[in-house]
Design brief:
Helix content: 10-25%
Structural class: alpha+beta
Order of helices and strands: EEEHHHEEEE
Strand content: 15-25%
């Protein structure tokens, strides 16, 4: 039942008309940090944001991160958008060097398909934040054997 109640100044307020707020489950969506980005690695030439811009990959990077922000960590892994490797790749499987500013015990991961089949972003995930450490346009972070050649 709704009834009007008089207030000072002639304004009136209706009682009992407020809708109840429904609590929905909160999805912890992925976020990204460039805090530990290392642009000094001696892979071919150091891969910097500027180089990615020159190679027309920077827009692809931003679009890829934007799309991934719609997913949780588990959804991205399940959809094979992100691969978790665990330990840093062995020396015979990478052209990168473990940066001193990154803890030895993080679980390394890659975001696949940035600007094409080869392009990768390497880093690590803590909770729902992916810390971007390397830009890898030539798939040299974790070199895999060629298939179907």
């Amino acid at each position: 039942m709704t009834k009007d109640r008089s207030r000072k100044g002639g304004r009136q307020r209706k009682e009992n008309i407020r809708d109840e707020r429904k609590i929905t489950s909160i999805r912890e969506l992925l976020t990204f940090s460039f805090k530990f980005l290392d642009q000094t690695q001696p892979v071919d030439a150091p891969q910097t944001l500027e180089l990615w811009h020159q190679q027309n990959l920077l827009n692809s990077l931003i679009v890829r991160l934007k799309d991934l922000c719609q997913l949780t960590k588990d959804e991205a892994i399940r959809q094979e958008q992100i691969t978790i490797y665990g330990a840093f790749p062995p020396k015979d499987k990478t052209q990168y060097i473990h940066p001193q500013h990154v803890d030895e015990n993080v679980a390394w991961a890659v975001i696949k398909h940035v600007g094409g089949q080869k392009g990768r972003i390497a880093g690590y995930i803590i909770e729902n934040t992916f810390y971007i450490v390397f830009l890898d346009m030539n798939h040299k972070f974790w070199i895999s054997e060629l298939k179907h050649t």
